[in-house]
Prior knowledge:
The structure holds two protein chains of two kinds.
Chain A: H1 3-14, H2 25-37, H3 48-61, H4 76-86, H5 89-110, H6 119-129, H7 139-156, H8 159-165
Helix pairs in contact in A: 1-2, 1-5, 3-4, 4-7, 5-7
Chain B: H1 6-9, H2 14-26, E1 36-39, H3 43-54, E2 59-62, E3 93-95, H4 98-103, E4 119-121, E5 142-143, H5 170-173, H6 175-179, H7 189-203, H8 228-238, H9 283-293, E6 297-300, E7 303-310, E8 317-324, E9 330-334, E10 337-340, H10 344-353, E11 377-386, E12 406-407, E13 424-430, H11 446-456, E14 460-468, E15 476-484, E16 490-495, H12 500-519, E17 523-528, E18 567-569, H13 584-604
Parallel strand pairs in B: 1-2, 1-10, 2-6, 3-4, 5-16, 10-18
Antiparallel strand pairs in B: 7-8, 8-9, 11-14, 11-17, 12-13, 13-14, 15-16
Helix pairs in contact in B: 3-9, 3-13, 7-13
Amino acid sequence: MSKVSRRAALKALGASAALLPALSPDGLLAFARIQAGRTVPAPRLLSGSDFRTLEVLVEAIIPADERSPGAKEARVADYIDLLLSEGEQQTALQWMGGLAALDQRAESRFGASFARLDAPRIDQIMAEISRNELEPTTPLEQFFVMTKQATIRGYYSSEIGIHRELRYKGNTYLEEFVGCATEDGKDCPHCRQQK
Amino acid sequence: MTQPDPTLALNNLAAVTEESRKLAASITPGSGKWDVIVVGSGAAGGMAAFQLAMAGVKVLLLEAGRMIDVRTEYRTMEWPYASMRRHRLPPGERPIAVAEYNFLDRPYGSNPALEKYKKVASYSANTFTRHWLPDERDNPTTGTPYALVRARILGGRTNFWGRGALRYGPLQFQAASRDGFDVDWPISYDDVKPYYDKVDTLLGCSGTNEGLVQVPDGVFQRPSKLNCVEVAFKRSIQKLGRTLIPGRAGVTTEGVLNNKYRNPCRGRGRCGRGCNLQAAFHSPTALLYPARDSGNLTIRPYSLATEVLLASGTNKARAVRVIDVNTREVMEFSARAVVLGAGTLESTRILLNSKAPSHPTGLGNSSGLLGCYLSEHIMGIRGSGYIPARIGTETTLDDGRPVGPYIPRFRNVTDRHPDFIRGYHFQGGGGCAEFPGMAGEIPGYGKAFKSNVRKHYPAIISFGGFGEVLPRKENRITIDPRVRDAWGIPVICFDYRFGDNELKMAKDMGDSIEEMLRAAGAEDIKIGRDPLPEGWSIHEIGTARMGDDPKTSVSDRYCRLHDVPNVYLADGAPFVSGGTQNTTWTILAMAWRTMDRLKEDLRSGTV
């Protein structure tokens, strides 16, 4: 990302309260220049390095574990990128600003970009930016909330999220819906309620 | 590399659009002779057309939208990951958001904030309904905030309705006798009960007989059973004297007779997208196609009815004026009688716009009450929590059914609440859904977060209230002479607000759902106490109320206009009050009853 757009993006992130105020004209112009500079009409809005940072961030929010793959394999970064490419310019700019700010934090704390940090250091930054999740105030805290909500939407609507993580059993043809076994006068093996 | 989006490509509507244009062009005032004109094709127009056509009456049905392709447009089982866009609306289209209904200047669709969008639709627009809902810019409304949802498609809103099929009972028909507010209906539950029974049998209704006066029993097919969290919740609230029953749905679980278009429910859920098995009641497959097969029904799509015209020097309607929405050609279709079933508000708008020298303020408005007494339900107050017995248990199949459970009204049934009259019910449910809506409220990140979502996933339970809005004369619609729709027709202007009784009721809803969740030992209880904007329930009724006295009502006990007796109302416009119940099943029963009257009036030569 160019210096101009980075500054504009950081500025946009700073303004990311619940109700978005209008972005400054130079911020929008910077964004328009980024758009116009892309010769190939690509589905992906984010630069390669921003995209990698986003992948690491969403995986830190919903990681792979013993039960199922995480947000990276579920292609949540692609989902967010598509969402941004189709959405409001202000939102995209806030996201780019958030990724830039995250890198800035990683650089100032550990001397490397966020995507290059080891797991304990990523966790340290995640703990910081998620601390005030219910009432986020700083731009990075707000960026965490934004990204977490989008990650939840993207992950739990993915094939991995629905089938491998949640093991969702519906959306199938049934002879009839069964429900709790107590409704048929039996003890229920699922909830252990008795008839 | 641009990814194709199958969730968008699936809706190639060229064929059905072309078919609709051709059909519309083939039907002109000279192309046929009809006994009755029916306006609208949803629950009201569908039932009206079915009853008449099956009795040998020649019917012309006018639908403002196009025909529907029922084989491809109901995308019932499509997974969200069918595309990376995950069922979001395409760029350039957007529904009006909750808060915008309250703070955007009217009309909503032409607000500068929304200018850049290709299409602005009402809040019900989503990837499944987006081709059925009109652009708000073509169909503006003005006045006080109102979240009006309209459909312009064969079958109207029955294509995506919530499937809740509840009867009004004695507590609704004779509400005024119990608390002294306003007036009773001119008819009683006993007058309508046979029609509810016939609707249940014709269309299929799933539910359980419970013997409750608040919400009478019916002729039910196999019910939507309760799942594990719901059974736990039911057992807990019994201690408070509250009842929880399986939801009642306008869905056939065991099949219906004499309809080759429909199949029984196969427990897939997702009924609100439209059911491609046609197990859910949709007006096209349940009513209109069989009616058309009789040879007595002509359907003209793309036909916006704008006025009912009087025969000069009489109080009889002679024709309906129609604008073809594509060609803009204006036509007059004549018949012996007119049935309005365009939906409470659109039917009322047609009447208000039908001005004649003898009816200067609209047809049937000698009482001055046409447009008054608008009512619906106050909703949005909700509570949720986790049932401990299910936290950390394995996923079960919890959502393969049309509707979740139902907590019938418990206020002002046998006791008398000190703060408000009438009452409210709760609808909701719990357990494993395709999308874990609760995940967004679980704090943290990483493995702990992921595992917490998984543990709480089967345990969530959530209920939302629906409260009666009192029928009050000052809650009304008029015609805004300054604003016209895309076809030049003056639009609806709302003057409608929740009142003191509704707001007190809403407060009690929040308190009572909290009390029930506490009784269930629910963890992490969250209560939402803000009502949704006016109109959100899509249960509008009352703007051409029925009664025996032409001075205090617009329509008679058979839903005929007092002033113009060959105009019949088939939708919710004549309803005097609405209780807590969802409206569709009563519209169907009342429309059937009204058509029995019309058939009799045709036979006897009254019309």
